[in-house]
Amino acid sequence: MNTPAPDSDTSATELKVTGEWYPATSSARFRAELVLGQHAFQLHAETQPCQQGNSQQLHFSDRVGNIPRKIRLPDNSLFQTADNQAIDDWLSESSNTQHSKASRYFHHLESNTRMIAFSLLFVIAFSTALLRWGLPWASSWVADRLPVAVAETVGKNTLDSLDHLFLAPSALSQSQQQKIRHRFRHEIAPLFNDDQGYELHFRQLAGQPDMANAFALPSGDIVVTDALARVLNAAQLDAVLLHEIGHIYHRHSMQRVIHNASLSLIILAALGNDMTLSEELIAGLPVFLMHQHYSRQAEHEADQFAVSALQKQQKSPLPLAEALEIITQTDGENHEEDNSDYLSTHPATEKRLARIREQASHQ
Predict the structure, then answer these.
(1) CA distances from 60 to 90, 97, 102, 268, 293 (A)
(2) Range list of β-strands (E), the chain
(3) Rounded distance, CA 240 to CA 356, Å?
(4) Residue 202 β-bridge partners
(5) Angle 234-249/252-271 helices, nearest 10 degrees?
(6) What mean pLDDT is predicted for residues 148-155?
(7) Is pLDDT of 288 > 50?
(8) Which residue has the higher pLDDT, 211 or 193?
């Protein structure tokens, strides 16, 4: 490119900067000097013909810290210089000001110590608010609006995976299982006239047959361990099953699935497109659903759901408090033996128990 320069460049705004020039069609590099005027530029590269043209045709990269500035010429060759401040000063005084407004603005921000501190605090506060309130609210909003079929799809293969990984077939007699299922199908499930189907399953925790607990999947499947069926009487077990239906009804499991999936996407966005991590997160879904710890609010909602259902049947909610105490005691004994956290989804605090007993006393 040997375009004739304009006949005059009368502006006092002229700049000479040194750097390196990279031809568009070559990997070569040449020491060079760029002369910038109000209307014209000249590029003097060692052993190369002088290039000149209209300075309005130059494209300046944005300033990022002290990274060398890149200036693209009309022939697509590249001039690079470390003299950022000189380029900024020239741009601020030249007719090429519009091109550099954003660059100067962001450079000002990144050079301002107070702005950096404010930005850091804002990011921390925003991230905390997002994780503490934003994601839970969004997860609840989405879960409440998903059709039941989606929850059934999510939980479709979960029980099979749990059977393969952590659970063992039930050792309860068929007559005992049938007795509990009959009561569940005819006395508990009919209380809820909704689109959600509820199904009861009996299992043992592999290697820990004495673990007494129950948990619900988003699909409406409720798993009861043999130990829980043995230590609770009929009224207590019914209350626990109502509590688990409360989790399904309020879609607590789906909320947790959506919450953790969203959090995983945020992590993936931060760490990059790591498909291995994505596959591990998907494969870990069954384990998460079994190990999940509901929030205090979710446990309170499930408790209230069970209490309301029992009261509608003219039954006392006291068996729910009794069942939670038994589960806590049994769970604590198992933890003392092996420090396991399996199926520890019911932090039966004194506050929960006191609330249930108070409601039972007012009935």
Answers:
(1) 11, 11, 12, 33, 54
(2) 15-22, 30-36, 40-45, 51-54, 59-60, 69-72, 78-81, 167-169, 199-205, 214-216, 221-225
(3) 13
(4) 224
(5) 50
(6) 64
(7) no
(8) 211
CA distances from 15 to 38, 76, 94 (A): 9, 21, 11
* Mean of pLDDT over the chain: 78
Q: Is residue 266 predicted with pLDDT exceeding 70? A: no
Residue 17 tokens, joined: 């900067």
The Cα–Cα gap between 162 and 217 comes to 11
State pLDDT tens for residues 196-226: 788 899 999 888 888 888 988 888 889 999 9
Regarding beta strands 199-205 and 221-225, do their DSSP bridges make them parallel or antiparallel, or are they unpaired? parallel
Closest CA to 184 of 218, 144, 148, 214: 214
DSSP, collapsed to helix, strand or coil, labels residue 263 as helix
What pLDDT shows up at residue 31?
94
Conformation bin of residue 207: beta by default, left when phi > 0, alpha when psi is -120 to 50: left
Q: What is the pLDDT of residue 102?
A: 57
Sheet with 214-216: list strands edge to edge: 167-169, 199-205, 221-225, 214-216
The yes-or-no verdict on residue 71 having pLDDT over 90 is yes
Taking the alpha carbons at both ends of the chain, their separation in whole angstroms is: 94
Of the candidates 160, 155, 156, 176, the one whose C-alpha atom is nearest the C-alpha of residue 228 is: 176
Domains of the chain: 15-111 (2.30.29), 146-361 (no CATH)
The first and second tokens of residue 52, run together, are: 């000149």
